[in-house]
Design goal:
Layout: E1 8-14, H1 20-34, E2 38-43, H2 49-54, E3 58-61, H3 72-82, E4 89-92, H4 98-108, E5 112-116, E6 133-138, H5 141-149, E7 158-160, H6 167-175, E8 184-188, H7 197-209, E9 215-219, H8 225-234, E10 241-244, H9 250-254, E11 259-262, H10 271-278, E12 283-286, E13 302-304, H11 309-321, H12 323-340, H13 343-362
Parallel strand pairs: 1-2, 1-4, 2-3, 4-5, 5-6, 6-7, 8-9, 8-11, 9-10, 11-12, 12-13
Helix pairs in contact: 1-13, 7-11, 10-12
Length: 367
């Protein structure tokens, strides 16, 4: 690697939960390591920590990121302890970690970049100090437009870096997928209202009411877990439904599924959908945000209106009853992910951005 290359990156990741933004971080680190870089992930533990460690990703498991101001000194001590590594850039993995990431960048005397995965709430703003944050990465065109139009971030500061899928891991998942007698239909994500899991449950009830025997999986944790379990009981789904709160990665769940459903009401990109596609699992998605960038209705997946359980059920019937169509959909989607969303493409674009940011940072000020 050239002497001027960005080989040392401090990644501010927070809690390593099983969700899209952490999968993004995991893939980013694996891709960077394959290029000879040495990322260090600063986190507060979490269920995906063992997966990071098994992959050989260096992780500093410290709870100083998750604590309030009174732990500022502990955080500073940690940064001093790793300053000898001479990081070239700090990459902040979520907008909620911006302040902590900026603190780290200032302490280390290096520039920072921020990845934004989600849309902003109405009226929400993000204060971006241009002196420290030299690039804001949007995971999709929809997120970029939201950052510029709603969060009021200067357009020239925001760029899209294609989110990459680990095709090797997806290929292993595809080869080891289970063959189920009755279809297994599932969704993966944090259990919050915005993810639309209520509509998934109502679609499950509608499918069973149409006389189709199937089993359903909701994989994830979150604030809505109790309400969803209560609703499942009210809908008399308990015999056909499994909640999976603990799993090491999305592929562990995807290899058990015949169809993947994304009922989310707002989706910055939809990395889990891309993973399902790469694994050869046909998908049904509610129309939202970044999903539009890769789900072509009837070609790479089935698109349905938001908050519409009956439309989800109708789409599921089509996939279950027309296996030839379902297989063609899955093949088209898998090929599209291989062409448009390979991890190598993401790493190429990320290293270009890192290099540009570091060069600008090191340029002498104009006299």
């Amino acid at each position: 690697m050239a002497a001027t290359a960005v080989d040392k990156i401090l990644i501010i990741a927070g809690h390593l939960e099983v969700r899209g933004s952490i999968t993004y971080t995991f893939n980013l680190c694996k891709g960077l390591m394959a290029r000879g870089c040495e990322p260090l992930v600063l986190c507060t533990g979490g269920p995906m920590l063992p997966a990071f460690q098994r992959a050989g990703i260096r992780v500093a498991d410290t709870d100083s990121l998750g604590k309030p101001v009174y732990d500022l000194f502990a955080f500073r001590r940690f940064l001093r302890s790793v300053a000898w590594e001479r990081f070239k850039v700090v990459h902040i993995q979520h907008k909620s970690l911006l302040r902590k990431g900026l603190r780290a960048a200032r302490a280390l005397g290096v520039p920072s970049v921020l990845t934004v995965h989600h849309f902003f709430e109405p009226g929400e703003r993000l204060r971006i100090p241009k002196k420290s944050v030299r690039g804001v990465i949007a995971v999709s065109q929809a997120v970029r437009e939201d950052l510029v139009n709603n969060a009021k971030i200067p357009r020239e500061l925001v760029r899209i870096v294609s989110t990459g899928v680990d095709l090797e891991a997806a290929g292993t998942c595809r080869k080891s997928r289970q063959k189920n007698e009755a279809p297994v239909i599932g969704t993966i994500g944090t259990l919050t209202p915005i993810k639309g899991n209520e509509h998934f449950l109502r679609a499950a009830r509608a499918l069973l009411d149409r006389g189709i025997e199937a089993y359903f999986v909701i994989a994830g944790r979150g604030e809505e877990s109790g309400q969803l379990r209560k609703l499942a009981k009210e809908l008399e789904l308990t015999r056909n439904l499994t909640f999976v709160p603990d799993f090491s990665d999305n592929y562990e769940v995807l290899r058990a599924l015949d169809v993947f459903v994304n009922p989310s009401l707002r989706e910055g990109l939809g990395l889990t959908v891309l993973q399902a596609m790469a694994c050869g699992v046909p998908t049904v998605c509610a129309a939202s945000g970044g999903i539009h960038s890769f789900v072509i209705d009837g070609e790479t997946g089935l698109m349905v209106p938001q908050r519409d359980p009956n439309s989800i059920a109708t789409a599921l019937v089509r996939l279950i009853e027309d296996r030839e169509f379902s297989n063609k959909l899955a093949q088209n989607a898998s090929k599209m992910v291989e062409q448009e969303y390979p991890l190598d493409k993401m790493i190429d674009e990320m290293l270009d951005l890192y290099g540009e940011v570091v060069r600008e940072w090191n340029e002498p000020a104009a006299v």
